[in-house]
Specification:
By secondary structure, the chain is mainly α. It has a single domain (9-98), classed as Orthogonal Bundle (Multidrug-efflux Transporter Regulator, Chain: A, Domain 2), CATH 1.10.1660. It has five helices and three strands, in the order αβααββαα.
Length: 100
């Protein structure tokens, strides 16, 4: 990895413990585990086996929590978020392709 300063801006750097991530998202650690089971997020594992989350993963978890708070089933919420992200990526690639 880069210098410590680079990590501050790295959306994918696993800087947050499960407890801190749950606090930021406003959920329980169990909710984060269930998001992993539903394949929305795959947290980094420390050498000791502890889950570590990136800012990007925390944003996904917050989106899922919001949807669940509005009554969406957790598995459905995860699937919707995954599909939204896939669509966003496809649109980004399409724009880049058309600008070449």
């Amino acid at each position: 990895m880069g210098q410590p300063e680079d990590r501050l801006d790295d959306e994918d750097y696993p800087a947050y413990t499960m407890g801190r991530a749950a606090e930021i998202v406003g959920c329980s650690p169990e909710f984060l585990r269930r998001l992993g089971d539903a394949k929305l997020i795959d947290p980094f594992r420390s050498d000791g086996g502890h889950r570590r989350y990136s800012r990007y993963q925390i944003r996904l978890a917050a989106r899922a929590r919001e949807m669940c708070d509005q009554g969406t089933d957790i598995v459905a919420a995860c699937r919707i978020i995954i599909l939204e992200d896939q669509l966003e990526e496809a649109l980004r690639e399409n724009r880049a392709h058309h600008h070449d």
